[in-house]
Amino acid sequence: MSDPYYGNGQPLVGVSHLKKYFPVRKGVMRRVVAQVKAVDDVSFEIKPGETLGLVGESGCGKTTVGRSLLRLIEPSDGHVEFENVDVLKASKGDLRRLRRNMQIIFQDPYASLNPRMSVLEIIGEGLRVHKLTSSTSELEDRVRELLDRVKLDPVYINRYPHEFSGGQRQRIGIARALSLKPKFIVCDEAVSALDVSIQAQVINLLMDLRDEFGLSYLFVAHDLSVVRHISHRVAVMYLGKIVEIADTEALFASPMHPYTRALLSAVPVANPTAKRERIVLQGDVPSPINPPPGCPFHTRCPVAMAKCKTEVPPLKEAGSGHTYTCHLDE
Ligand code: SF4
Question: If you measure from the C-alpha of residue 79 to the centroid of ligand 1, how many angstroms do you get, rounded to a whole number?
């Protein structure tokens, strides 16, 4: 990417061995009979000003990762640190303070805004709760400023969500996330519900805001082409695990994991003469209740070998910061 890379210094967010298992209960006694391994031993870091894209098919656990970082879902195990503070051990008061710096933008701009609240109430809620403004007129001024910043006309301040288009609602969601001046935002499929032309506008806005305020993003999406535009690095998830992580350019130029190669083969190329062979994966993603032994991708991998069915693949390095898990080339 052309903007300055901020990948130096201490991580802002550090995630290690994160797990989230959802119990499956049955019978009158609601006994736990199995566990859905939605997130299974995930580790990564995000530096100040950096955007990490997190991609994978629906159900791979990427949304659960994003929400676990903010403890909107309580993780089962692992560590999450934000500016060296242990998020998972934070008390209620500490968590409230942490959440000023850690915000989220949801996928569905129709469902994530309370239809009975005006734009002023939606965007101003956090400012009011955290007592960050001292008068109603100061609150209104701040909300107008935020509307202007996300390129919405401040005259809309007293309107309600149903009076806006999907793209405009997502801008309201972004203004709400920005209101507390956070350092880190989880963008949870934040543009997936929007038309392609609107997606590009919202992504450009998110990039402008990142550069202006030095924000860091975890950008969760199922679409690799969307992630490519905004991310400095990309992590690819499959069945609750990260199977490959690399700088965006390295991942697109030389993907190492067969799953990443398959995902990339479906991304349209700008130059129609540069043919890329489409890799169509057979079968469905296996159930995270009972993931396959060995390599979890072996049931769909076009180049699977005998040992893939029994042996967990090792973590390999393909270059600086480029890692993947696979038995190929051993
Ligand atoms: Fe395919 Fe085997 Fe590599 Fe898994 S370990 S991705 S099954 S080649």
Answer: 28
The single-letter DSSP state of residue 82 is E
In this structure, which residue's CA is closest to atom 7 in ligand 1? 298
pLDDT tens digits, 200-258: 999 999 999 999 999 999 999 998 988 999 999 999 999 999 999 999 999 999 999 99
Q: Which two tokens stand for residue 179?
A: 């209101």
Domain extents in the chain: 13-101+180-255
Ligand 1 atom nearest to CA at 298: 7
Q: What is the architecture of the domain spanning 13-101+180-255?
A: 3-Layer(aba) Sandwich (3.40)
At 319, which helix (H) or strand (E)? strand 315-319
CB neighbour class for 82 (10 Å; exposed up to 12, middle 13-18, buried from 19): buried
Contacts of 22 (CB under 8 A, 6+ apart): 35, 36, 38
Q: Does any ligand 1 atom lie closer than 6 A to the CB of residue 328?
A: yes
